[in-house]
Amino acid sequence: MEDTVLEESLPNEAVLEVFKHLDAKSLASSTRVCQRWNQIATAEVLWKKLCYRTDRIVGKNTEWWCLEFTASRSWRECYYWITKEDRKEFKDTQELCDAASHNESEPLRRQYIYCRGLDTFTDDPSILQQYGDFLVDRPDANASWNIAQNYYTKALAIAEKDAMKHRRTLLFTLYRYALFLANNRFDYNEADRLFRQLLRKLPGSPWVFERYAEFLTEYRHKYALAEKMYRMILNMQPTGSSLISYALFLWQVRRNYALAGKCFRVACELDPNKVYVYINYLGRQVKDEKLGYDILLQSKLYKQVQVSAEDEQKVFSLALAFHQIHCVDEAELYYKKHLQVVEKVNICTLSNLAELVMHSRLNFEESERLYRQGLALAGGYNDTIEVALGSLMLAQNKIEEGLAYLYKLVESSHIKTSRNAFTESWMILYIHCKPEQKREALTMVKKCLITNLVRPKLIIMFDANLAWAKQHNVPELAWIKKLVEVYNCELEVEVLNDWKDWTSITVDPPNIDETDDDLNSILQTVEAEEEREATQQNEDEEQTNQMPVQPTQMDTQ
User: Fold this and answer.
1) Sorting pLDDT into bands at 50, 70 and 90, what band is 485?
2) What domains lie within the chain, and their CATH numbers?
């Protein structure tokens, strides 16, 4: 009785001071004593103090993360949300980055792990680079891109100071930063400079030549130089990946179908997993799905999966190959097998299976469920799935909802930088929008196809929308089909030139630079810069060796 009176006589401030020394378990127990204690034990200041005391906040980055988290939630929730596994002591940056990648389906947790890395491994370039990659894909791109750029530049500066120690990180950061500048900043000159710097550091690497050729094709439209790069790879030791890249270039840019087919065949011998790209080519360009099916059944990939279906990459590639030639039963079978063999549910598999279910089974409900599951795993944003959801709404006759969703989508930063998703959104909008909106949609499509020279994806989502257009007697359906075929590189843009609505729209001329760049001069410049760097390093070493050694205090004594 006396204890109760004593407890009630203590002011709240005194009880709060006592509670500051309790652990989480004791605080949780205190909430069940009485209403007064419940109010005090759930005070934000107590749980904030606990987050500091229990190693949840280890520096300015984790502190910033917790402040962001608690801006919309409580410190108590923050305490319990950060698990023991999140706070483990990582022996090195590789282990930490692996843990972050393992939490790909939980972007918030992944970000917390990166923040721990930034606080624990201060100024480690690999953490800076990977966190920059993470920020680039955020939906609030305008804010996060500036931060990502700072991390990239800081990673490069640190890695270049000790290039031997951080060689791998330096090379990969150069590549990722170059892609960021091209994709997100549209700074092609600076991106080109970084690619040439990468070429200088790895002058005989087929991987660098392949990446640079893709950049020259996709962004600079320097096709002559890109082809020289590809031919340089052929003189080295081409990989399956580089041959596939060259084959796509020959198919989509040069229209050299005979050589493209040969490159596809050789690539599949070197890398059986790439057979789905060849099958896609046979189905779309050659228009011979039976030939594609026969080749697929005789492929190394098919035989390997029949022996063992445990390799998740092989199972996914086989499912995708069957999907390309509309073998619905086989594709569905292997997509579902892939979901069984992967450790974590694969977003691409969910997306592809949803597309298959929508177009071939006309099961819109199941398709939406799969898309929503994939979008949730992606943290709420994925350009392919987001466009597909808008397409699905429209195909289901949810016109107002679907149009509002897609119009909002084409204004978002991450869709604008995904040129395929952006083009696809406007093509779907053109099919479904009101008559007074069609000119704007068609103008955007023409700009993407002509000025931006958008390259195709391997799988498209127009089938259900074209079926909808036919069902609702949408005028000019033939032209809509031709737009889709142009987007897939089955037809050239010129076939649209007799369409009056198309020719009446003016867009900026394409920025194509077909100047015959001298590859030898580029390589000579690379070698010259390499020699200059080596000479400078030797001079610095000689100068250091000639400097008088200052005696230390110990020497003097």
Assistant:
1) confident
2) 2-82 (1.20.1280.50), 382-504 (no CATH)
- Cα 181 to Cα 152: distance, rounded to the nearest angstrom: 11
Q: Which of 165, 154, 113, 119 is nearest to 134 (CA)?
A: 113
What tokens does 228 get? 């020289």
Tokens of 412: 């978002």
- Model confidence pLDDT, tens digit, residues 298-346: 999 999 999 988 899 999 999 999 998 989 999 999 999 999 988 778 8
Structure tokens at 524: 């000579």
Say how far apart CA 462 and CA 256 lie, in whole Å. 27
CA distance 281 to 344: 30
Residues 142, 91 contacting (CB under 8 angstroms): no
The confidence score (pLDDT) of residue 468 equals 82
Tracing tokens 């392949």 back to the chain, one arrives at: 210
Which residues lie below 8 Å from residue 74, measured CB to CB, with a gap of 6+? 44, 47
For residue 107, how far is the Cα from the chain centroid? 13
Strand, helix or coil for residue 438: helix
Query: 318, 331 in Cβ contact below 8 A?
Result: no
Q: Is residue 108 over pLDDT 80?
A: yes
d(CA 270, CA 243): 9
Structure tokens at 535: 């000479």
Angle separating helix axes 240-249 and 223-234, nearest 10 degrees: 150
How many CB atoms are located within 10 Å of the residue 506 CB? 8
CA separation for the pair 348, 374 (Å, rounded) = 8
* Residue-level pLDDT at 140: 63
Q: How far, in Å, CA of 40 to CA of 502, rounded?
A: 69
HSE-up of 195 (CA within 13 Å, CB side)?
26
Report the Cα–Cα distance between both ends of the chain, in Å, rounded. Answer: 75
